[in-house]
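Thread: assembly with ligand

MN 10:42: here's the input set. Chains plus the small molecule as SMILES. Want everything predicted jointly, not piecewise.
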Amino acid sequence: MSDQSVSRNPATSPLLLSARGLVKSYGRNRAVDGVDLDIPERAFTTFLGPSGCGKTTILRMIGGFETPDAGSLILDGRSLVGVPPERRPVNTVFQNYALFPHLTVFENVAFSLTLRRGAQDPAPRVKRALEAVHMGEFGARYPHQLSGGQQQRVAVARAIIAEPHLLLLDEPLSALDRKMRGHLQIELKDLQRRLGIAFVYVTHDQEEAFALSDVVVVMNKGKIAQKADPVTLYARPADSFVADFIGSATLVEGEVLACTPGNATIATPLGTITAPAIEGLQTGGRAALVLRPEHLQLDGCSGMILTAQVEHVVFKGDRYMIEAGIAGVTLRLMSNRPPEPGTLISIGFDPVASFITRIAT
Amino acid sequence: MRLTLHRAHLALPVALVLILGCLLPLLLLIAFSVFTVDMDAFEMVPDFSLANWAQMLTNPVFAFLIGKAVLSGLITALIAAVLGYPLALSIANLPIAWKGIAQILLLTPLYTGEIVRIYAWRVVLGSEGLINAVLEGLGLVDEPVKLLLFSPFTTHLVLLYNTLPFMVLPIWISAELIDRRLIEAARDLGARPFEAFTRVVFPLTIPGLGVGLLAVFALSAGDMLTPSMLGGTSGATPMAMIDNLFGTAFDWPLASVLALSLLITLFATASSIGFLLLRFKGARAVLQGGLK
Ligand SMILES: Nc1ncnc2c1ncn2[C@@H]1O[C@H](COP(=O)(O)OP(=O)(O)OP(=O)(O)O)[C@@H](O)[C@H]1O
Ligand SMILES: [Mg+2]
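BT 11:07: finished. Tokens for the full assembly:
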């Protein structure tokens, strides 16, 4: 793991928010189903997961817009139960920004400052907040006169001006095009470092989560599937759901033949393979081998050699993505040259680089 | 560009109807207003005379009647706003199943004909009416309260009853259109519920409030039946006078002058209301940008 993630290792910072056993149901549907969470100060934590897995619901409980059915939420050592949103030191950047349409950019950003009676002139602070998001010249505009990216910046400025201890961001970049998103990701990360505020971020874009986060929390059906830094998440997924959701892996199921500390041997349709493995696998049980495209080499000659038939070739700009079938399994790999569909290719692969994990329930 | 053209075409039939149905009678009125009447031949003479306009400006009865109509419309609109605003907001916050019922109840006054309603009010408010019977039965009054019927009170009570739906509906719709996340955003930024109302909800419902004020003003300032049948001696209206002049008195030129003067006054008042509301902080931005 990189130096960076160690130096800001969340585990060593004091705890800001702690959740235990959070549950929230809508009717019979358990949107959030027993979530434990520790968010250190200054950390950038991202919730990642497919649509409907409960990410927004968790954010809304932290923000005070939903009451948990069960569980505890403790911020700065105080319980948040029964505390209305306006009395939580938490601010939110809403999914569609929720800027006040009848107020100018300046007034939107100044909103929280003007609520306090006898507050001093908000202008200098508003100016600073707007400059922090490069929107200094837009104070007099109304929200409907701004582009999506500009609205997003105003929403961030409005949320940080009250100096919250925790900033919640619900897919703030999802409505923007790819280029703008990349640009704003860098700005958000930069802002977070400068302000030293803890960010809790929601996205279903894995690249975005990796680019921004100290810790990524992968959610599946209201439960946490894995909490880890991006490198661990990618290299050692806790189960087949995480492995499948992150990157474009091929999962090959098989029976566990043997387990040694750190390694396992499984019998797969591709053959018997020994590779690094997650803890706690049972001999005789089933497990999944995670094959990432970068573990597989076209015309490779080291490690195991697999012979597969080319099914599809997709041009990706810098390289070609090849899908090739072998024993009912479709492997995905990248290559500089496009093989003819239908032809047989040999794929080299080093099992030590792959990973064996649990099958998600 | 093509789209705009398209839209312009779509508006054409309506524009034609408006021009024919509105402008033409108006032009006729303007023409009539400078004609004179030959009372012996009992016909209108198409010459040019400003005598009718002079009479309009000098005879205080006309100004009094028009002023009374405007005042009556303003008072009804204001009271309807005060009563209707909270009502509209509560309806917007009802569970969905109740909203339908609320809507049906709200529109009740409009289902019954005006004459039926007026006689019903007479039954309720008259000396031997329901209210007086109850008051006397409870021993609260010794003799029937006369003020209940045939007084300005009656007129405005019934005008309010008739026009309240036109106040509540537009406010309700504009409250319904407010994105709930805006209210959550206000709370998130530190606003207590009441502050979220004054800072966000109220400004965003101003367009609805404006439509309601204008509708109620126009409906009640221009009403004739309610004041004349329930207002007793106080029930004189410019409308009734115009009716009288056009009909029995056969003074079409004077009737036209009065009608035009009333129209101009009502139009000026309504425009001022609209203008004042647009000056409200951000109301213009809301109308320009939509309620997204
Ligand atoms: N107000 C509500 N009433 C009923 N069900 C709800 C409500 N809000 C959310 N849900 C349900 O709870 C589950 C979790 O919703 P949530 O909004 O937290 O998902 P999400 O992870 O944010 O998804 P997305 O990525 O699509 O935003 C979903 O199945 C959703 O249908
Ligand atoms: Mg969501």
